[in-house]
Design brief:
Length: 341
Protein backbone atom coordinates (compact mmCIF):
# COMPACT_ATOMS: atom_id res chain seq x y z
CA UNK A 1 0.00 0.00 0.00
CA UNK A 2 1.19 3.52 -0.76
CA UNK A 3 2.43 5.59 2.16
CA UNK A 4 0.58 8.78 3.08
CA UNK A 5 2.40 11.76 4.55
CA UNK A 6 0.86 13.77 7.40
CA UNK A 7 2.28 17.21 8.13
CA UNK A 8 1.42 18.85 11.45
CA UNK A 9 2.28 22.55 11.50
CA UNK A 10 2.19 24.88 14.48
CA UNK A 11 3.16 28.55 14.55
CA UNK A 12 6.65 28.41 16.00
CA UNK A 13 8.89 28.99 18.96
CA UNK A 14 12.41 30.33 19.46
CA UNK A 15 15.19 27.75 19.45
CA UNK A 16 16.20 29.01 22.89
CA UNK A 17 15.12 31.50 25.55
CA UNK A 18 18.07 33.83 24.91
CA UNK A 19 17.72 37.22 23.28
CA UNK A 20 19.42 36.21 20.04
CA UNK A 21 17.13 33.24 19.44
CA UNK A 22 14.05 35.28 20.29
CA UNK A 23 15.19 38.05 17.94
CA UNK A 24 15.55 35.57 15.07
CA UNK A 25 12.11 34.12 15.78
CA UNK A 26 10.38 37.51 15.99
CA UNK A 27 12.12 38.74 12.84
CA UNK A 28 10.98 35.73 10.80
CA UNK A 29 7.49 35.62 12.29
CA UNK A 30 6.66 39.31 12.04
CA UNK A 31 8.21 39.71 8.58
CA UNK A 32 5.46 37.50 7.16
CA UNK A 33 3.11 39.67 5.11
CA UNK A 34 0.13 37.69 6.40
CA UNK A 35 1.08 38.52 10.01
CA UNK A 36 1.80 42.23 9.62
CA UNK A 37 -0.20 42.99 6.51
CA UNK A 38 1.34 46.26 5.40
CA UNK A 39 3.63 46.90 2.40
CA UNK A 40 7.04 45.19 2.37
CA UNK A 41 9.28 48.21 2.99
CA UNK A 42 7.50 49.73 6.03
CA UNK A 43 6.94 46.21 7.42
CA UNK A 44 10.65 45.40 7.27
CA UNK A 45 11.65 48.76 8.73
CA UNK A 46 9.14 48.26 11.55
CA UNK A 47 10.11 44.67 12.33
CA UNK A 48 13.88 44.84 11.90
CA UNK A 49 14.32 48.39 13.13
CA UNK A 50 11.88 48.57 16.04
CA UNK A 51 9.86 45.53 17.10
CA UNK A 52 12.41 42.70 16.99
CA UNK A 53 15.32 44.67 18.51
CA UNK A 54 13.24 46.20 21.30
CA UNK A 55 10.91 43.28 22.12
CA UNK A 56 13.46 40.49 21.95
CA UNK A 57 14.95 41.28 25.36
CA UNK A 58 11.68 41.47 27.27
CA UNK A 59 10.25 38.48 25.39
CA UNK A 60 13.35 36.42 26.18
CA UNK A 61 12.74 36.96 29.91
CA UNK A 62 9.20 35.62 29.47
CA UNK A 63 10.35 32.60 27.46
CA UNK A 64 12.81 31.74 30.24
CA UNK A 65 9.83 31.44 32.59
CA UNK A 66 8.14 28.77 30.47
CA UNK A 67 11.26 26.99 29.22
CA UNK A 68 11.89 23.47 30.52
CA UNK A 69 15.06 21.44 30.86
CA UNK A 70 14.11 19.71 27.62
CA UNK A 71 13.30 22.91 25.74
CA UNK A 72 10.25 24.77 24.48
CA UNK A 73 6.95 23.44 25.89
CA UNK A 74 5.24 24.13 22.56
CA UNK A 75 7.82 22.06 20.69
CA UNK A 76 7.83 19.25 23.26
CA UNK A 77 4.07 19.03 23.12
CA UNK A 78 4.21 18.95 19.32
CA UNK A 79 6.68 16.07 19.29
CA UNK A 80 4.52 14.12 21.74
CA UNK A 81 1.46 14.64 19.51
CA UNK A 82 3.48 13.53 16.48
CA UNK A 83 4.63 10.32 18.18
CA UNK A 84 1.20 9.41 19.51
CA UNK A 85 -0.48 10.16 16.18
CA UNK A 86 2.10 8.05 14.34
CA UNK A 87 1.43 5.13 16.66
CA UNK A 88 -2.33 5.52 16.25
CA UNK A 89 -2.25 5.80 12.43
CA UNK A 90 0.18 2.94 11.86
CA UNK A 91 2.81 2.12 9.27
CA UNK A 92 0.81 3.21 6.22
CA UNK A 93 1.32 6.82 7.31
CA UNK A 94 4.37 8.93 8.04
CA UNK A 95 3.89 11.90 10.38
CA UNK A 96 6.12 14.98 10.35
CA UNK A 97 6.01 17.97 12.71
CA UNK A 98 7.01 21.44 11.53
CA UNK A 99 6.83 25.01 12.71
CA UNK A 100 5.86 27.78 10.33
CA UNK A 101 8.74 29.80 11.79
CA UNK A 102 12.06 28.43 13.06
CA UNK A 103 12.49 24.73 13.84
CA UNK A 104 11.60 22.00 13.15
CA UNK A 105 11.70 23.72 9.79
CA UNK A 106 8.83 23.39 7.34
CA UNK A 107 11.09 22.97 4.27
CA UNK A 108 12.93 20.10 5.97
CA UNK A 109 9.72 18.34 7.01
CA UNK A 110 8.38 18.53 3.44
CA UNK A 111 11.72 17.32 2.08
CA UNK A 112 11.50 14.30 4.39
CA UNK A 113 8.09 13.45 2.93
CA UNK A 114 9.41 13.99 -0.60
CA UNK A 115 12.29 11.55 -0.01
CA UNK A 116 9.79 8.95 1.21
CA UNK A 117 7.94 9.38 -2.11
CA UNK A 118 4.60 9.60 -0.31
CA UNK A 119 1.53 9.31 -2.51
CA UNK A 120 -0.34 12.05 -0.66
CA UNK A 121 0.38 14.83 1.81
CA UNK A 122 -2.27 15.83 4.33
CA UNK A 123 -1.51 19.17 6.00
CA UNK A 124 -3.02 19.81 9.43
CA UNK A 125 -2.38 23.37 10.68
CA UNK A 126 -2.63 23.22 14.47
CA UNK A 127 -5.09 26.10 14.76
CA UNK A 128 -8.78 25.23 15.35
CA UNK A 129 -9.96 28.61 13.98
CA UNK A 130 -8.87 29.89 10.58
CA UNK A 131 -6.93 33.15 10.38
CA UNK A 132 -4.87 34.46 7.50
CA UNK A 133 -1.91 35.03 9.84
CA UNK A 134 -1.86 31.38 10.99
CA UNK A 135 -3.62 28.77 8.84
CA UNK A 136 -3.47 30.99 5.75
CA UNK A 137 0.26 31.49 6.14
CA UNK A 138 0.84 27.74 6.56
CA UNK A 139 -1.22 26.95 3.44
CA UNK A 140 0.63 29.58 1.39
CA UNK A 141 4.10 28.48 2.46
CA UNK A 142 3.41 24.79 1.90
CA UNK A 143 2.10 25.52 -1.59
CA UNK A 144 5.11 27.73 -2.37
CA UNK A 145 7.53 24.96 -1.39
CA UNK A 146 5.70 22.08 -3.07
CA UNK A 147 5.18 24.07 -6.27
CA UNK A 148 8.92 23.80 -6.92
CA UNK A 149 8.88 19.98 -6.91
CA UNK A 150 9.11 18.16 -10.23
CA UNK A 151 6.51 15.60 -9.13
CA UNK A 152 3.71 16.93 -6.94
CA UNK A 153 1.64 14.36 -5.04
CA UNK A 154 -1.98 14.70 -4.00
CA UNK A 155 -2.13 17.45 -1.38
CA UNK A 156 -5.01 18.30 0.95
CA UNK A 157 -5.34 20.88 3.70
CA UNK A 158 -7.41 21.09 6.85
CA UNK A 159 -8.88 24.58 6.89
CA UNK A 160 -10.44 24.89 10.34
CA UNK A 161 -12.19 22.76 12.94
CA UNK A 162 -13.63 25.18 15.52
CA UNK A 163 -16.32 22.83 16.87
CA UNK A 164 -14.58 19.47 16.47
CA UNK A 165 -16.35 17.18 18.93
CA UNK A 166 -13.19 15.64 20.35
CA UNK A 167 -11.53 19.01 20.93
CA UNK A 168 -14.64 20.38 22.59
CA UNK A 169 -14.84 17.30 24.78
CA UNK A 170 -11.19 17.69 25.80
CA UNK A 171 -11.68 21.31 26.91
CA UNK A 172 -14.87 20.35 28.75
CA UNK A 173 -13.13 17.51 30.59
CA UNK A 174 -10.22 19.79 31.50
CA UNK A 175 -12.69 22.40 32.80
CA UNK A 176 -14.47 19.83 34.95
CA UNK A 177 -11.26 19.31 36.89
CA UNK A 178 -12.36 22.54 38.59
CA UNK A 179 -15.45 23.16 40.70
CA UNK A 180 -17.52 24.71 37.90
CA UNK A 181 -20.31 25.86 40.21
CA UNK A 182 -17.91 27.93 42.31
CA UNK A 183 -17.13 30.46 39.55
CA UNK A 184 -18.94 33.74 39.01
CA UNK A 185 -18.09 33.95 35.31
CA UNK A 186 -16.37 32.13 32.46
CA UNK A 187 -14.04 33.85 29.99
CA UNK A 188 -13.06 32.53 26.56
CA UNK A 189 -9.89 34.35 25.59
CA UNK A 190 -8.73 33.91 21.99
CA UNK A 191 -5.63 35.31 20.33
CA UNK A 192 -6.50 38.65 18.76
CA UNK A 193 -5.89 39.83 15.21
CA UNK A 194 -6.10 43.36 13.77
CA UNK A 195 -9.65 44.28 12.85
CA UNK A 196 -8.50 45.21 9.35
CA UNK A 197 -7.65 41.53 8.83
CA UNK A 198 -11.22 40.60 9.68
CA UNK A 199 -12.60 43.00 7.11
CA UNK A 200 -10.02 42.04 4.47
CA UNK A 201 -11.00 38.38 4.85
CA UNK A 202 -14.65 39.28 4.24
CA UNK A 203 -15.40 39.29 0.53
CA UNK A 204 -19.01 40.48 0.76
CA UNK A 205 -18.82 43.72 2.78
CA UNK A 206 -20.44 42.03 5.78
CA UNK A 207 -17.83 42.06 8.54
CA UNK A 208 -18.31 44.51 11.41
CA UNK A 209 -21.29 46.11 9.64
CA UNK A 210 -23.99 43.71 10.81
CA UNK A 211 -24.97 43.70 14.47
CA UNK A 212 -23.91 40.51 16.26
CA UNK A 213 -22.48 39.23 12.98
CA UNK A 214 -20.25 36.74 14.84
CA UNK A 215 -23.05 35.25 16.92
CA UNK A 216 -23.71 32.44 14.44
CA UNK A 217 -21.84 30.75 11.61
CA UNK A 218 -23.51 31.25 8.23
CA UNK A 219 -22.30 30.96 4.62
CA UNK A 220 -21.60 34.71 4.62
CA UNK A 221 -19.14 34.51 7.53
CA UNK A 222 -18.01 30.88 7.48
CA UNK A 223 -14.34 31.85 7.14
CA UNK A 224 -14.42 34.66 9.71
CA UNK A 225 -11.89 34.17 12.50
CA UNK A 226 -14.01 35.94 15.11
CA UNK A 227 -17.15 33.99 14.15
CA UNK A 228 -15.25 30.72 14.43
CA UNK A 229 -13.95 31.73 17.87
CA UNK A 230 -17.52 32.34 19.01
CA UNK A 231 -18.45 28.99 17.49
CA UNK A 232 -15.82 27.22 19.62
CA UNK A 233 -16.94 29.02 22.77
CA UNK A 234 -20.61 28.18 22.14
CA UNK A 235 -19.79 24.50 21.65
CA UNK A 236 -17.98 24.35 25.00
CA UNK A 237 -20.69 26.40 26.71
CA UNK A 238 -23.41 24.07 25.42
CA UNK A 239 -21.61 21.03 26.80
CA UNK A 240 -21.13 22.71 30.18
CA UNK A 241 -24.75 23.98 30.10
CA UNK A 242 -23.75 27.57 30.92
CA UNK A 243 -26.18 30.45 30.59
CA UNK A 244 -25.42 33.18 28.05
CA UNK A 245 -24.95 35.86 30.72
CA UNK A 246 -22.37 33.73 32.50
CA UNK A 247 -19.65 33.79 29.84
CA UNK A 248 -17.77 36.30 27.67
CA UNK A 249 -15.76 35.85 24.48
CA UNK A 250 -12.75 38.16 24.26
CA UNK A 251 -9.32 38.54 22.65
CA UNK A 252 -5.76 38.87 23.95
CA UNK A 253 -2.18 39.52 22.77
CA UNK A 254 -2.71 42.87 21.09
CA UNK A 255 0.34 44.35 19.34
CA UNK A 256 0.59 48.03 18.38
CA UNK A 257 -2.00 50.78 18.50
CA UNK A 258 -4.45 49.75 15.78
CA UNK A 259 -7.87 48.36 16.68
CA UNK A 260 -7.83 44.59 17.18
CA UNK A 261 -10.63 42.09 17.66
CA UNK A 262 -12.68 43.14 20.65
CA UNK A 263 -13.46 43.12 23.48
CA UNK A 264 -9.96 42.90 24.90
CA UNK A 265 -9.41 40.27 27.60
CA UNK A 266 -7.72 42.71 29.96
CA UNK A 267 -10.72 45.08 29.78
CA UNK A 268 -13.19 42.25 30.30
CA UNK A 269 -11.41 41.02 33.42
CA UNK A 270 -11.28 44.55 34.82
CA UNK A 271 -15.02 45.03 34.26
CA UNK A 272 -15.82 41.65 35.81
CA UNK A 273 -14.11 42.62 39.06
CA UNK A 274 -15.87 45.98 39.06
CA UNK A 275 -19.22 44.22 38.68
CA UNK A 276 -18.53 41.91 41.62
CA UNK A 277 -17.54 38.79 39.67
CA UNK A 278 -14.38 37.83 41.48
CA UNK A 279 -13.97 34.13 40.67
CA UNK A 280 -13.33 33.51 36.98
CA UNK A 281 -12.41 30.43 34.97
CA UNK A 282 -10.57 31.19 31.72
CA UNK A 283 -10.44 29.07 28.56
CA UNK A 284 -7.96 29.79 25.75
CA UNK A 285 -9.15 27.55 22.90
CA UNK A 286 -7.21 29.23 20.10
CA UNK A 287 -4.12 27.43 21.38
CA UNK A 288 -3.73 23.64 21.18
CA UNK A 289 -0.81 23.67 23.62
CA UNK A 290 0.02 25.65 26.71
CA UNK A 291 2.59 28.25 25.76
CA UNK A 292 3.72 31.81 26.46
CA UNK A 293 0.28 33.27 25.66
CA UNK A 294 -1.54 30.93 28.05
CA UNK A 295 0.89 30.13 30.86
CA UNK A 296 2.41 33.61 31.16
CA UNK A 297 -0.01 36.10 29.60
CA UNK A 298 -3.13 34.65 31.20
CA UNK A 299 -1.79 32.50 34.03
CA UNK A 300 0.55 35.15 35.43
CA UNK A 301 0.08 38.62 33.94
CA UNK A 302 -3.73 38.72 33.73
CA UNK A 303 -4.03 36.85 37.00
CA UNK A 304 -1.79 39.37 38.75
CA UNK A 305 -3.82 42.29 37.35
CA UNK A 306 -7.04 40.54 38.34
CA UNK A 307 -5.83 39.94 41.89
CA UNK A 308 -4.59 43.52 42.27
CA UNK A 309 -7.98 44.81 41.11
CA UNK A 310 -9.71 42.86 43.88
CA UNK A 311 -10.39 39.50 42.23
CA UNK A 312 -10.26 36.37 44.33
CA UNK A 313 -9.51 33.61 41.82
CA UNK A 314 -8.57 33.50 38.15
CA UNK A 315 -7.89 29.95 36.97
CA UNK A 316 -6.81 28.77 33.53
CA UNK A 317 -8.18 25.63 31.90
CA UNK A 318 -5.40 23.40 30.59
CA UNK A 319 -4.97 23.34 26.82
CA UNK A 320 -5.05 20.22 24.61
CA UNK A 321 -1.30 19.54 24.74
CA UNK A 322 -1.03 15.80 23.96
CA UNK A 323 -4.50 14.87 25.22
CA UNK A 324 -5.76 11.59 23.73
CA UNK A 325 -8.89 13.34 22.45
CA UNK A 326 -6.73 15.84 20.54
CA UNK A 327 -4.86 12.94 18.96
CA UNK A 328 -8.18 11.34 18.02
CA UNK A 329 -9.42 14.55 16.43
CA UNK A 330 -6.33 14.78 14.22
CA UNK A 331 -6.56 11.11 13.32
CA UNK A 332 -10.15 11.59 12.19
CA UNK A 333 -9.19 14.59 10.06
CA UNK A 334 -6.43 12.53 8.42
CA UNK A 335 -8.56 9.45 7.78
CA UNK A 336 -11.32 11.52 6.17
CA UNK A 337 -8.81 12.99 3.70
CA UNK A 338 -6.74 9.87 3.04
CA UNK A 339 -6.79 8.24 -0.36
CA UNK A 340 -5.96 4.63 0.44
CA UNK A 341 -6.53 2.97 -2.92
Amino acid sequence: MKKIGVLLVNLGTPDGPDRGAVYRYLKEFLSDGRVIDIPWLPRNLLVKGIIAPFRSGSSAKLYKRVWTEDGSPLKLSGYSVKEKLQKSLGDNYHVELAMRYQSPALPQALDNLKKLNVSQIIVIPMFPQYASATTGSVHQRVMELISKWQSIPEVSFANSYPDNKYIIQAFVENARKYDIDSYDHFVFSFHGIPQRQLTKACHNDHCLKVENCCSAIKPVNQFCYSAQCHQTARAIVNELKLEKEHYTVCFQSRLGYDDWTQPYTSDVLEHLVESGKKKVLVFSPAFVADCLETTIEIGYEYKEEFDEAGGEALDLVESLNDNALWIQSIKDMVIKRAILA
